[in-house]
UniProtKB/TrEMBL annotation:
It catalyses: ATP + protein L-histidine = ADP + protein N-phospho-L-histidine. This is histidine kinase. Keywords: Kinase, Phosphoprotein, Transferase, Two-component regulatory system. InterPro entries: HATPase_C_sf, HATPase_dom, His_kinase_dom, HisK_dim/P_dom, HisK_dim/P_sf, PAS-like_dom_sf, Sensor_HK_Regulatory, Sig_transdc_His_kin-like_C. PROSITE patterns: HIS_KIN.
């Protein structure tokens, strides 16, 4: 039996305790490592799961070209197995294209040597999948030195989006370029302001409008299109648009190319990009608006002047316009109409004033009239017969805006006139049939429209033939058998043609076979027709022949009378000369001294001989002038001298009657070519008449003036004057004025002789007179 000593037992106990402690530590350490291994396994599984679901595949390329890659790489590349080497990434008809593999190999070598990352987009053969390969040198913890880690991304969707965005960017760039070109080519000024509201961009139209050198010049100088003025600050308007976030438009005046124009300026906010603007020339529009406003005002003023009543209703069926005839026609108050009553209320007010036709059911009738607003036709027209016999023509015209225009025309007078016209036509027909003249009315096409009984009887035409309204050529052929000269029938056709087409009046005469004579005429009528009339002048032709024979006998007697007067003038001159000679001898004392009474007798004889001699000379001159045998000299005549001599000769007689005698001769009176004696005689006759017929204390004036072509001498007085009848007889050699007849004065040969002498010089003598205002006689003589 083994007996342990105490030291041994103590040592054994200590060793056993040490072993037990080591065993406990070993168990605790194993359990701890096991737990850590479990955690590491779970962590690895999570990382592997993340890698399997990641959008990128990690690929390690070793220095010798070996590949560590997940199985999904084969699916992405379309390979049957996971590639193990770099060159295995591409194959025939599958994997990457050999060029892409070569490019990736070159990128890997560059990454090994330079240590820089790279990125490349590749595409699997036979697939639409796009892969993005990003590579960089691998860390020492990941792979041995010289390895490169590739991350392969499936960029199919992102590349498609990038392509789409690239195309969109290109499209937008083209659009912006086109828009820029459009803005530049725009004929209206356009501009852009930056956030500070300063001009940053303007187009050519803006540059031209402000008359600058270039767009850069405009931006540099800050030239504004609209002048700075109170209430028209363009920068303030742009600021308002930026603050409110809404476009601001306004019409302002501006000077464009030296002309004052009206511009519609619009500022458009662009957020943080600033404010854009453009300007449209609305000068013509503003003028058109003003012209349209004036047109509307003129139209309404014109409607007020019409006799027809006019009322206009708006789309809401309220009265928006009426003229004064409408107020008068329907007896409405203007203040009530100014409230814009509705259509129904206006009809009710018309009914209350008795200005609507009587209807059995007013409501149904009013409902029917409401349809005027929506009538699809060109309008409605009705006739209203009101109480009291008033006839109204009503025109209802729907308007494009949904309104209605009503026109009321009072046709009461027209209806009465139409009735009177019908009566007049019946009277005319009866009058035509009872006229002594034959009458026919031809239309513009030459057809006979109207005729009377006398027309049918003259041409012996059948009523049936006339009822067919024959043309004028057919009528002329039928009438030719009635004429003494059948070819004259063509004249009838020609006269009707001239009257209907050329609108001229013509007349003529025809002779019938039975000896009758007719005078006919074609007269154009206002309606385009022609009136053809025929008058039987058979009796007047016979009377005319008799009168012609009598006139020839009277003319022969007048010639005999004129010759007798001329001969008598010569015959009377011989004894008158003897009487005058013996009287002068007695006055000269050849028969002894005469007593005072005898001297007076001799003086009276000499005065009578002088007056009779003057009268005989006047009669002789008058008869010679009428016969065209008045002898005239052609010399230069100083009219001023001639007029002064005539005035000096008549001055004693004017002084005897205490007349104011004034002579006013202008130097322009000058000279004429003519017979001085005959002109002096004409002037003497005018002055003697003025002095003779001007009452005592009156005024006589002799005035002369002229121009380059004519000379004028006027003799005027303030005597009693002459009425129209006396003026008409003033130049009749066998007529005297009433005053001359009362005083038993001699025949009034002065004015006829004066006119004969003046007209013999191709001049003109005019007389102007009025009762109580005196008389003025003017002689106008040509210079030539």
């Amino acid at each position: 039996m083994l007996v342990l000593t105490p030291p041994v037992a103590a040592a054994a106990g200590a060793l056993l305790a040490l072993w037990l402690g080591a065993a406990a530590w070993a168990v605790w350490s194993g359990l701890k490592r096991r737990a850590r291994a479990v955690d590491d396994s779970r962590h690895g599984q999570r990382i592997q799961a993340l890698l399997d679901s990641a959008p990128a595949l990690p690929v390690v390329i070793h220095r010798d070209g070996a590949i560590d890659a997940p199985p999904r790489l084969a699916d992405w590349l379309g390979l049957p197995d996971t590639p193990e080497r770099l060159e295995a990434l591409g194959g025939p008809g599958a994997g990457l294209h050999p060029d892409d593999v070569a490019a990736i190999a070159a990128d890997i070598d560059a990454a090994r040597h330079a240590g820089r990352p790279f990125a490349r987009a590749v595409r699997a053969q036979g697939s639409t999948r796009t892969l993005l390969v990003r590579g960089a040198p691998a860390a020492d913890a990941v792979a041995p030195a010289g390895a490169v880690v590739l991350w392969v991304f499936d960029a199919t969707e992102s590349q498609a989006e990038i392509g789409r965005l690239t195309d969109e960017a290109a499209r937008l760039a083209k659009a912006i370029e086109a828009l820029s070109g459009l803005i530049e080519a725009s004929p209206i000024p356009m501009w852009h302001r930056g956030p500070d509201l300063r001009l940053t961009l303007v187009n050519s139209a803006y540059v031209k409008a402000v008359e600058a050198d270039s767009a850069a010049d405009v931006v540099t100088r800050g030239l504004e299109l609209v002048e700075m003025a109170p209430g028209r600050n363009p920068i303030a308007a742009a600021a308002s648009a930026r603050e409110t976030g809404e476009s601001v438009s306004r019409v302002v005046p501006a000077t464009i190319a030296g002309e004052r124009r009206s511009l519609l300026v619009v500022d458009v906010p662009l957020g943080d990009a600033g404010v854009a603007g453009y300007a449209i020339d609305v000068e013509e529009l503003e003028q058109s608006r003003a012209a349209f406003k004036r047109f509307v005002e003129a139209e309404r003023d014109m409607l007020d002047r019409l006799s027809a009543g006019v009322a206009q209703f708006g789309p809401d069926r309220s009265l928006i316009f009426y003229n004064q005839p409408f107020v008068r026609l329907f007896a409405m108050r203007p203040d009530w109409l100014a409230d814009r009553p509705e259509f129904d209320r206006v009809l009710e007010r018309m009914r209350e004033s008795g200005r609507l036709p009587e209807v059995r059911d007013f409501r149904a009738w009013r409902e029917e009239k409401r349809g005027w607003f929506t009538d699809a036709s060109d309008g409605q027209e009705e006739s209203w017969i009101l109480s009291g016999g008033t006839h109204l023509r009503v025109v209802a015209q729907p308007l494009p805006d949904g309104g209605l225009l009503l026109i009321f025309e009072d046709r009461t007078e027209q209806v009465a006139l139409a009735s009177a016209r019908d009566t007049l036509l019946r009277v005319r027909a009866a009058t035509f049939d009872n006229l002594f003249e034959a009458i026919g009315v031809f239309a513009g096409d030459g057809r006979l429209q109207l005729w009377n009984q006398k027309f049918r009887e003259v041409w012996a035409l059948d009523e049936a033939f006339l009822a067919s309204h024959p043309r004028v050529d057919a009528l002329a052929e039928t009438a030719a058998r009635m004429l003494a000269n059948p070819s004259r029938a063509a004249l009838i056709r020609e006269l009707v043609r001239v009257a209907t087409i050329e609108r001229k009046q013509r007349s003529g005469r025809v002779a019938m076979k039975d000896g009758r004579h007719f005078e006919f005429a074609a007269v154009p009528l206002p309606d385009g027709n022609a009136l053809f009339t025929m008058l039987d002048i058979s009796d007047s032709r016979r009377i005319e022949a008799a009168l012609r024979e009598k006139n020839e006998a009277l003319e022969a007697a007048d010639r005999v009378k004129t010759a007798f007067v001329a001969n008598m003038s010569y015959e009377l001159r011989t004894p008158l000369t003897s009487i005058g000679g013996f009287a002068e001898m007695l006055a000269g004392g050849y028969a002894g001294d005469l007593s005072p009474i005898a001297g007076d007798y001799v003086t009276a004889i000499l005065e009578s001989v002088a007056r009779l001699g003057t009268l005989i000379d006047d009669v002789l001159d008058l008869t010679q002038s009428e016969a065209g045998a008045l002898p005239l000299e052609r010399k230069s005549v100083d009219l001023a001298r001639l007029a002064r001599e005539a005035a000096a000769a008549i001055a004693p007689q004017a002084a005897e009657k205490k007349l104011g005698f004034e002579v006013a001769l202008d130097p322009s009176l000058g000279t004429v070519s003519g017979d001085a004696r005959r002109l002096r005689q004409a002037l003497d006759h005018l002055l003697r008449n003025a002095v003779r017929f001007t009452p005592e204390g009156g005024q006589v004036m002799l005035k002369g003036e002229g121009d380059r072509d004519h000379a004028r001498i006027t003799v005027s007085d303030n005597g009693p004057g002459m009425d129209a009848g006396t003026q008409a007889r003033a130049f009749d050699r066998f007529s005297r004025s009433g005053e001359a007849r009362e005083r038993g004065a001699s025949l009034g040969l002065g004015l006829p002789l004066a006119r004969q002498f003046v007209e013999a010089h191709r001049g003109e003598l005019t007389l102007i007179s009025a009762p109580g205002e005196g008389t003025a006689v003017t002689v106008e003589l040509p210079r030539g």
